[in-house]
User: Fold these one by one.
Assistant:
Number 1:
Amino acid sequence: MTVHITPKLPKALSRRTVLQTGAAAGGGLLLGFQSPFAAASIPNATDGAPAPVGPFAPDAFIRIDRAGHVTFIMPQAEMGQGVYTAHAMIIAEELDAAFETVSVEASPPSDALYGNPVFGIQATGNSNSVRAFWTKLRQAGASARAMLVQAAAAQWKVDPAGCTASNSEVLHTASGRKLAYGALADAAAKLTPPAKPVLKNPKDFKLIGKPLKRLDTPDKVNGKALYGIDMLPAGVKFATLAASPVFGGKVAHVDDSAAKTIPGVRQIVVLDDLVAVVGDHMWAAKTGLSALAITWDEGANAHVDSAQVWKDIKAASEHEGAIAKAVGDAKKALQEGDPFEAHYELPFLSHAPMEPINCTVSLRADGCDIWVGTQVAARTQAAVAKLTGLPLAKITVHNQLLGGGFGRRLDVDGIEKSVRIAQKVDGPIKVVWTREEDIQHDFYRPVYYDRITATLKDGRIDGWKHRITGSSVMARWFPLGFSHGIDGDGVDSAVDEPYEIPNMRVEFLRHEPPAVPTGFWRGVGPNNNVFAIESFIDELAKKAGKDPVDFRLAMLAKKTPRLASALKLAARKAGWGNPLSPRRGRGVAVQVSFASFIATIAEVEVDHDGNIRVHRITSAVDTGIAVNPDSIVAQLQGGLIFGTTAALYGEIIIDKGRVQQSNFNNYRMLRIDEAPEINVHLIKSGEAPGGIGETGTTAAPPALRNAIFAATGIPLRRLPFDREVLAGRKRV
Amino acid sequence: MTSLRINGQIHEVDVPGDMPLLWVLRDVVGLTGTKFGCGIAQCGACTVHIDGKAVRSCFLPVGEIGNRAITTIEAVGETPTGAKVQKAWLDLEVVQCGYCQSGQIMSAVALLAATPNPDDSDIDAAMAGNICRCGTYVRIRAAIKKAAGAQQA
């Protein structure tokens, strides 16, 4: 197979980086490219044949050249989740393109052309790339296919209804004549797209549902894949920076006398809130930065610490929140029954993608090029326009593969800092953050404090009150998502919890932590809500004297049958109920998140010193139509590890206004020698595709917590798991 | 000037002797397949081979390398073991974001070169220094075993 991705640099950069749009006859879009750079300007370039351009470009997503080469323009960022392959499969399915020959490339920034249909802006997040673009990309493929068929039929002077397409060819069934897409490209380009393209019946899918090989991985095993951090435009200098260790602090004074003497150090850039050292290479920049004596004006936040953060949020959570959902009469049910209450706590977390934050900038009087891996290409462009005063059209964003996103690259702070440094430097500059800077200047997953109260009647939940207290990331990042005091993400998987509960009330109480910036983190709102709800459900099951799986099934069967089926499958596959040795336990968690239905069972062992060994995790997943089943399994496997890492180790602690963690030695990641066996079982479904990238992260912590509960009887109520509590040296 | 033997080619570089090999490879020689992850030898993204052994290049001063052979991800596929590991990685679709995978593959190739038929504890010992934030560990383990099997055949 010769599937390849058009390398995004240098080829894409050298020949057709700026996508220009113009109205074309028939309402379609004609798209052309211009070249801002010569390939020779990129020293790590390996030049090759020009990538195909048109002439058949029926919409923003599809290009077919005269040789029949098919290129798809990818609206969403590839950060490991496999979206390039999934989106290509969806378009190729309806286009009937020969999948082995398609190329993909990153789209330029444009909310109008490449906006996420759910958000209305160009953003890769909320596990919705497949869901949001499912219909749009199918229509794009089907429309282009209809035009190619029409062009062939016209040439043969036959009825298009007598023609079919497959493998990038149109076939006239009666005569057996064939025309390749490349030979039809010019004629098809002159046609009007159909008003209502006819989509395939899913039973006729040839690509969707097959575990196809990913388009982006061959170059990721041989060092050829290029990430933002790999950009080397001609004459580039290297910089690294330090922002105030105390959130919000400013630079008071810099003594650069020692740094200036370091070989390779070229320039020291002092801005009001950061200091950067520019050098011939990262080592010069890094040693130069270490040699600076920087005095910071720490500002108002030098007193902030985690103890105060927790004290404040607990106090805030005593107040009523905005009502996000009310069913029946929760107040009455809770008054009449025997209410059981518990609260749950989630800590600040850093994203720590393996590729540290970086951005390469070439700022000139007449324009600006940005090389970066971002989840928000159009927002990047707008941010750079604002800082530089340049018009949007003069700012070219070359989006690259992302070395992990996890929500970190939904924010453009690293890009803004790089541009502000570039404004003080002549020539192109690559700014790379150290890992320490990356961990200490993140937009952190907020701390959350959940209070849940419930009553039981006949072994089932009768009354339910869930109050979520925490930061509203939406209010900062996407204000439309925060209204009437409710953060739409903050209550996700809580207002739509899966159980039949006759009387319920869900409240959101916005409480911003002092100083600490908060952001989206893989799994977002459902992480908090599913952890709190599923932990609490296990405590209720115990109170009711029921088996945790049976207790759930009884309340799921009618309201959420897809989840009930997943739970039954997971229980069977995990050997639920089979005897375990002492100190071992199985725990279950179920979730409806990102429109997927998932049941997860973890098996752990806890020793008397509180050490936790995760032996295996089993998930059963109904995510509707599985575009690429192997990628879905991979996302679950990886997401479960991501969530296990958070549950076992993840916590950012603030002291004196500073983040105490700094690198992987004290902000621990799960390693291969601690990784459990993971088994993922996909449930075949004809429903519309669900989201998957974040679901495993949500699933692991409550399943592990409930397994620990089963193994030890200790009901942990905060993350990460406290070994001191498990060792009996501290109370819950 | 420091003389380095990288992927069979001699490179003369004008850099300080205490400069870690990682930055020489990436910023001076232009071999960007070797990645920066932590700078303190905690994550393994920067793993290369020095005379066939896995070494964290972010912590290795170039002045200490001498004439020893440096192999990076760009050339590891030229060895039979390297090619088998790369193939197993693709066959089992190990990779997600891919940023750590250069280092993972370099560690796996060094493991198989020294221990052609590793058991789980050998894999744990050789690979625990390489963090994968996407969490591809299950497939890394399987791919190493697959490559080992292919090696035997």
Number 2:
Amino acid sequence: MSKSTVPFAGTQEQKVELQNYIQEHGSEPGALLPTLQKAQDIYGYLPIEVQEMVALGLNIPLSEVYGVATFYAQFSLSARGKYKISVCLGTACYVKGAGEILERVMDELGIGYGECTPDGKFSIEECRCLGACGLAPVMTINSEVYGRLTPDMIPDILAKY
Amino acid sequence: MADMIKLTINSIPVEVPQGSTILDASVKAGIRIPTLCFLKEVNEIGACRMCLVEVKGARGLMAACVAPVSEGMEVCTNSEKLREYRKMTLELILSNHRAECTTCSRSTNCELQTLAVEYSVDDKYFSPSGLEPDIDDSAIHLIRDNSKCILCRRCVSVCRKDQHVGVIGAISRGFNTHIGSAFDMPLSSTSCINCGQCVQVCPTAALTVRDDTDKVWAALADETKHVVVAPAPSVRVQLGECFGMPMGTNVEGKLAASLRRMGFDGIFDVDTAADMTIVEEGTELLNRLKEGGALPLITSCSPGWVKFCEHYYPEFLPNVSSCKSPQQMFGALTKTYYADKMGLDPKDIFVVSVMPCTAKKFERTRDDQSASGYPDIDVAITTPELANMIKRSGIVFEELPDETFDPIFGIASGAGHIFGATGGVMEAALRTVAEIVTGKPLEKLEFHEVRGTEAIKEAEFDLAGTKVRVAVVSGLENATKLLNSVKEGKAHYDFVEVMACPGGCVNGGGQPNVPGYIQNTKDVKAIRASALYGEDAKMGLRKSHENPVIKEIYETYLGEPGGHKAHDILHTKYVARKIYEDR
């Protein structure tokens, strides 16, 4: 699980929203999971700064918060970019060379999957089957779909953003 | 009384209270079910699957450590099927364990190895491959190697539940699961208090005490160094365990003899410094009672507790006694008083302490712990580290004659002895304070109210019209409860003893490892502590302030207890620390 490469930029408003949630629900049994979900709703991801707020708010050790945050795939420890690149690694795309597409995207941006560029512009995720196997290999950038990709097409596509 | 449940284990009828587990019942039936993750009242999660048993009529196998008994239950713990299952479980665990048993420091004292041998396990069955050491050696007191971790989570539980620290946890999921600190930061960057309880409960060598014996060997070989050594109170009732002696055997005489044969120049006793601590701390208590000052006064002997207070309860730091711990007083006096008396330059003196404690390795590096201008203590080793040195020296420990410590700093009272058990410091202090206040010898020296291993012990004493309310806690979860009730104004005390480790130093993080099976079936703390109290009861000298060594040090060197010089040499300061770094 990679850590955030983007400096934390939480606002006072976000902090108050999280604290209000903890105030209201923090004493319920099993409060950690919904609190982390709320925190991710508010901040988009769960950097150490946010996990510490949760730990302090619920009066539990940070190690416990981190354990849960890294257990569930729904939580992201890294900021997601303005443009979320999602490369399909489903069977059809993979057979058609999606691995090379993912490598090229990572090379071009200088980050790994699950990470975000330091300027907060792009983040890379992998996904399993977008249901567009006929266009394999496929990737999406936010809701835009790009199909029948070759590695050489990647720089031009990224340049559009 | 709880309702009793009747059941059979391997056809043996047993009766146990309702709510007991199958494992509890098996102990009563005299049957041992193998366990790895289970630690009574600490880690009861049924994760390792070693304790699976067959229950007649049940759908599947049950984990004996968590399955409750029911009336008429017929349990089988030792069928062909179970033996095969357990063997397979061990083979699966070993497939992800970097076994290097020939050189591993826990070899012959490893719970996984013991079971693997018992079950004739084929450790190559799943051909483990690609396992590299996965080490965090950032901490001053221990080393974690996750390539030997079996994910039993005992360390996680003891850190959270007993110690209220919780700096480690299980991270990630599936095959990537590992134990570590939040955000995988090095242990040294967390609010770890160095208590070493995690090392005590680790069934393998995933957590080991940092070995500092090389520094001691080097000093012993250095002819320019005057090397002195002193063991802490509880070391003498534990060291024997490393040589196969029964738990609770007092080996003080053989301990002194072995240190002399290893070539130390001064064979001293931290118990003597413990007596000094009592005189200083007793004086501090009386001053605070008389002249006002932060009350309750809280003891400062346990460096795990001190660091816990600095991180988690900095508002109580004014309450913590400014007295250095006995280890540090011993080092400070060795490099000042003893150096003076012997005409030695403190820079040429090398002071080794033998401790039941891993936090002592940290304590010696604290600021303001160098009375002579040189560190009070040069190396702090644990009981098993010393045992290893004795073995390597070719000393046949069991056959040694009983000798005594060097009298110049080796005479101690029974009060100094009992420091090693929870309540011991309190009792020692009460013996001294009571006599100072009343001006009369005590009729009865035993303060039974503060003995025993209960979580929180409270008592009130009338000392010549002065009421003194005291409390004793061990284990930091218990300390947390006590501090919170003081904070909320629900409890009022004048004097509080806190020991970081549950049961006190006899159960310290630097003591010999005790297999889970024994921890689960015997009261290890009480057995070890009883040896200390037994020793005290036999002694003529049982009050710290009557120790002739202490009297002489005050008369010829320090002046008054709590005086200016005593303060310079024997007292220290604390710092508030954060739980999380500033961001």
